[in-house]
Amino acid sequence: MILCDRHRFVFIHIPKCAGSYVRACLSSFDDSAGRFSRHGDHTDLGILDFAHIPLSILEKFFPSEFARVAAYRSFAVVRDPFERFPSSMSEFLKKRKKQLIRNMSLREIRHEVDSIIRHLQQERPHAEPETTYTYIHFTRQSEFVNLGGTRIVQHLYTMDNVSSLLAEIGNLTQTDLFSVLPGRKESNVSLVYRNRGVRSAISVLTLLLGQKKVGRLVSWPALSRIVHIPGNTTASGIFDSKHVRDFVTDYYKEDIDLYESVLSEAAPSPAR
Prior knowledge:
This protein has helices at residues 19-26, 55-61, 63-71, 81-95, 106-122, 129-134, 162-173, 196-209, 211-218, 221-227, 235-239, 242-251, 253-266; strands spanning 2-4, 9-12, 39-42, 46-49, 73-78, 146-147, 150-151, 155-158. The protein is α/β, with parallel strands linked by helices. A four-stranded mixed beta sheet has the order 1-2-5-8, with helices on both faces. A two-stranded antiparallel ribbon has the order 3-4. Strand 6 and strand 7 form a beta hairpin.
């Protein structure tokens, strides 16, 4: 979260919605001195991801900051829930399980996805703080935007419209944010090794030759086809399965409605 008292605006960082990029662009305006850009211990909540705090938690445990969210101009980026869930899954595996999804077999990915779905379906509202920290990237986007059925965060943008958000804040702060934008990192490509034997061989080569050399080798089209499963049968097939899509449709129903409403608000009015 970026909280700017000088210009009376706040940026709410919804997990896996380009928030780290936007936060980097706006870091010079953060009057909280980075308080909400970290994770750590909280007296009442235990382990807490301060960068991603749902509004109900913010209202209860950070009343002063919540009052400013309600009073200031507030901004956030939202994402198609069907795209966000795979990204959340990849982040969870990388940060919490110390695994890269591209290094996992389809069976391993499917097992982890099913485990997450079971956990979320059993989730109690506002689970224990450590659990919330562990699974924060799966928290519904609507919990960062709405409270008690009321829209709190006023200005919402889709991920492909981040430039409009930055232009709006640039106008508000009289700053050319586009001259200080950090370089965008390219999205990780989720490649899956064909089997454990191939993965083990690549691990040995990496130790012998180094990661950069091996990366260049396996990027050759001919070798990549031997090492990796073709893209249309990798993790995307799991996330496009009826089982997963039905889960997203049900669990993230409010997020789907929210995303569609933002798309509708951004659409140009038909000519008369």
